[in-house]
Model the fold of this input.
Amino acid sequence: MREIAKSTIELAANGDMAAFEDIYKEFSSTVYTLAFGVTQNQQDAEEATQDVFVKIFRSLKNFRFDSSFSTWLYRITMNTAINIYRKRKNHGLSFTSYDELNGIQLAAPDVSKDQRDRLDAAVRVAEFLKNLNPEHRACIVLREIEGLDYKEMADVLGVPLNTVRSRLKRAREALIAYYRKGGHSS
Amino acid sequence: MNCKKIEELIFTDYVDGNLKGHVLEELEAHLRSCPNCQKLAGELESTGKLFRESSRKKAPAGLWYKIRAEISAKPQATRVMEGILENVRYHLSHLKPAVVILSTAVIILFILTAVRFMPHNDYSKTGIGQDDILGIYYMNGTSDESEYDFGTPAERFFL
Done:
């Protein structure tokens, strides 16, 4: 997990917006990627990212450096994203569609082959993730995209190591079942 | 190790690179001789690669300005309160088992205290016997007979 200088956090905690902007620049991509991984919806991921940074700013004064800043940030991100996903589920869930994600690719015809491959992978990953519940999505995204180890994941998710292992196993079983069906959701 | 145990390891510690020593050697020897487990390991490698290639997403342009506007809009008191609540929520979620045990202990203690001090008619401590209690009921006119008095002429004649 990436970290940020303690002095930057302390400045931001005292209301220094330039320092807080540095934190935003360092972590906004991570927060948005994780939130999208859980919600599978662009608007929800944007709402979650906004909520996370507002919460972080208001809580910084109370941050005591007992845990790492990244663990704290990842944890708030996961809780916020899962809550938004659940709220949305109760009011009619919508995912960013395969076509919408493909549209991003089609709207940029001058992208390189490497970028195109990455967009293709992103589309397939999004399709994979829709088959999982939010807790399993959180687990697989933290592991596969953020590269956290089991201990870090347990700290972020607030669950024992064995729970991390069993959630990962179930998520991957579902992914393999989906992969064997041909990789397209019904 | 049988295929079931091997599969469990493939799904987690093997693909995540946590295995070492003789366990890893045993698993790799099994993979060389078992096409099904070999296939599973290959598929997991492919799906994992897809995740790694999917690239990180950038937060939407302009989001920082929305965040800054929201931060500036709220009064300081609200900010401090929300900060404290978020912090309490964070610490409580860390201490879940301790909170559950403490809450249970408080509830049990409350029930025991309530039972101990609850007022009840313990006549044995007042020296009044069972016959005295019946006498009190009769003197107060709370016997079964008075409850069935409907005031009819037949009742007036006999009573």
